[in-house]
Amino acid sequence: MHKLQSVTRMPLSCSMFLCQRHIQMLRKFPIQKVAAIHTTNRCLDLNEFFDEHKNWGASEVKVGRAWKKEELRLKSSSDLHKLWYVLLKEQNMLLTMEHDCKENHVYFPNPERLDKVQDSMENLEDVIRERNIAYFELETTHTGERPAELIDNAFGLKEVYTKTEYDIPKEVNKVWQEKNPPVNNKSRAVQKFLVLLREKLANRRYAQLAKDKQQVARIFANFKDVDAEAVQEKFPNVDVEEVRLSDKARGNWAP
Amino acid sequence: MSSRWYPIYQKGNPQLRIFLPNFWMKLVKSKDPLPPNVVEFHVPLAMTNHDIKNYLENIYKVKVANVESTLENGKLKRAFGKIGGFVTKEEDYRRAIVTLPKTESFTFPDLLPKEKTESDEKERKKMQKQQADNFKKYEKRANQIPGVPSWFRY
Q1: Domain B26-99 belongs to what topology?
Q2: What is the pLDDT of residues A140-150, one digit of tens each?
């Protein structure tokens, strides 16, 4: 087949052994490349939970890297579905081997294999999710994601509330209403808590600012020719010019 | 859905299907002796007996006769060497005892073959001996030139 394919690109004189009509046909409908190897699934039933025999008791097992998102985006959804099960089996195998190593008090060789498998599983799921969102937006104009809402919780703090489906709506469900009475998050106690919380956070901010100011002052004291703009870029909250002219920023050298 | 959010099942609706199952399974060596057609697994807490059977039959193509499972607590450990020696806990899990058909039999393989561990031990001892020899050589040379600082000895 390889020979025939190259024939189509050859000048006519080179392929005299083929009849003229054959060559014309080949030029019209070139033979498409097909996959060189076809394999079926390994059928090892429960032995698929264990690594290859040569890796038993090995001190090092070398493997490649995880699947990237860019690579997975090129694959068809059915391919991704197949790959998911390959990864799932690999993960189960690694977990089994890790457990056995722990039981026998020996080091599990190359534990990063597990991270690689889990990374690629995460990437695969992200790619599937992207496709899902694109499909839903095209068909229904909204993402098929789980709906969420930003609410004030019982302590008056913002919280992301992920919604769930219920058999009976909340407004009608007497049992649920009894179990979950409405919470007043505007009460005096909550307000007091929020004031104290804000104070705590502000104090933390002031302390950080003081620390940064001190650091800037030290920089100016220790180094004579410092680029003030670069320092300002690194410490955006600090007024660098003010600190530079302050007493703390004076170094042990003549100005 | 790929975002792992399934609609609530109402009677008469089409069956809910998981396209990308994320359950893991560990095949472990049981501490107590089991019959040849019985295998022990550790699985996540959320997995039901029905799930375990479907998982093995559809993904691993293993025929399953019966599944029984119990919830197990993760081990409690005290972190020695740290101030206070606080207690840490490993993850809880579900222990599944899976019975295969009577005709099947499974024995947990020896995943640490003796030949390999012995050869590793030999290599380690060889290295140790080599190091000891090198140190002896170094000492011998050092004794020939007393009074010279160690930096210049080697």
Answers
A1: Alpha-Beta Plaits (3.30.70)
A2: 999 988 899 99
Report the C-alpha gap between A70 and A48 in whole angstroms: 29
CB atoms within 10 A of CB A96: 23
**Closest Cα to residue A176, out of A162, A164, A188?**
A164
C-alpha dist (Å) from residue B53 to A17, B43, B50, B71: 61, 12, 5, 17
Give the C-alpha separation, B28 to B38, whole Å: 12
pLDDT band per the 50, 70, 90 thresholds, residue B88:
confident
Arithmetic mean of pLDDT, B97-104: 96
Q: Which residue has the higher pLDDT, A3 or A48?
A: A48
In this prediction, residue A18 carries a pLDDT of 57
Interface of A with B in 179-238 (CB under 8 A): none
Which pLDDT band, with edges at 50, 70 and 90, does A6 fall under?
A: very low
CA distance B134 to chain A (A): 26
What whole-number percentage of chain B has pLDDT above 70? 95
Name the band, by pLDDT with cuts 50, 70 and 90, for residue B146.
Answer: confident
Among B111, B114, B120, B122, the strongest candidate for a mutation testing the A interface, having the largest count of A CBs within 10 A, is B111
Alpha carbon distance A142, A244 (integer Å): 54
The three-point CA angle A74-A75-A77 to 5° equals 130
Q: Is the pLDDT of residue A7 over 60?
A: no
pLDDT of residue B108: 94
CB-nearest to B120 from A50, A59, A85 is: A59
Q: How far is CA A254 from each of CA A202, A250, B65, rounded to the nearest angstrom?
A: 38, 9, 89
First to last CA, chain B: 69
Structure tokens, A204: 């933390």
Q: Is A103 on the interface with B (CB under 8 A)?
A: yes
